[in-house]
Write a structure and sequence with these properties.
Blueprint lengths: L12 E7 L6 H4 L9 H16 L7 E12 L8 E12 L2 E9 L4 E13 H8 L2
Antiparallel strand pairs: 1-3, 2-5, 3-4, 4-5
């Protein structure tokens, strides 16, 4: 059993800003034919924001891994456009942490998501992966 106990982080927030790169486009991802923010790229930015929010509360021996995301991609944004992801912890239960995330430009919402991450011991997790 892992001796690390996660504190109750409900209400903790993190906002990060990003500029949409050519590599983030639907055309580059192969998920569409236009140069707008691809849904898989939006997911990655949202997960990154949750990861960065959670990291300061974990010892160096631990990290978090994403296990679930439900995204409603509601708006388009073109390459070189600036947007933000705002992430809020909505719950903690054992090693499980849930988040509400929204992405937006100054003019419009790009999407909202529910996301779940689990805190894991890095060495034990990688040992299981490498079995």
């Amino acid at each position: 059993m892992d001796p690390f106990t996660l504190p109750d982080l409900r209400g903790k927030k993190k906002t990060m800003s990003f500029t949409i790169q050519t590599r983030d486009s639907a055309k580059a991802y192969g998920s569409g034919h236009v140069d707008v923010l691809a849904t898989p790229a939006l997911v990655a930015y949202m997960e990154q924001t949750a990861l960065v929010l959670l990291d300061p509360f974990l010892p160096d021996t631990h990290t978090s891994v994403g296990s679930f995301i439900s995204l409603n991609h509601t708006g388009a944004a073109k390459t070189n456009e600036l947007f933000r992801c705002e992430c809020i912890v909505t719950g903690t239960e054992g090693r499980k942490v849930t988040f509400s995330i929204r992405a937006f430009t100054p003019e419009k919402e790009l999407g909202t998501a529910s996301h779940t991450r689990y805190v894991v011991d890095r060495k034990k997790f990688m040992a299981r992966v490498n079995e």
